[in-house]
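Backbone-to-sequence.
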């Protein structure tokens, strides 16, 4: 992990603590952070309070529920 990625990961951990404190019990979350664009070596990092299996299940559910016309644009 690069120094830049470690800084982002540290920020994500801080944000995750805030999210966890504000959610009611038994609610899961995953926060993704990624670089825009289609560049080689693009970074995507995430934090979650769930285990990997639950995160994968939630992401698959998200993908099946979201329609392409609902997508926003990268900035």
């Amino acid at each position: 992990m690069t120094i830049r990625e470690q800084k982002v990961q540290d920020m994500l951990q801080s944000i995750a603590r805030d999210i966890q404190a504000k959610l009611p019990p038994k609610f899961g979350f995953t926060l993704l952070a990624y670089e825009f664009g289609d560049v080689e070596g693009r970074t995507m990092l995430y934090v979650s309070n769930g285990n990997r299996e639950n995160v994968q299940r939630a992401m698959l559910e998200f993908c099946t529920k979201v329609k392409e016309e609902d997508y926003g644009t990268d900035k």
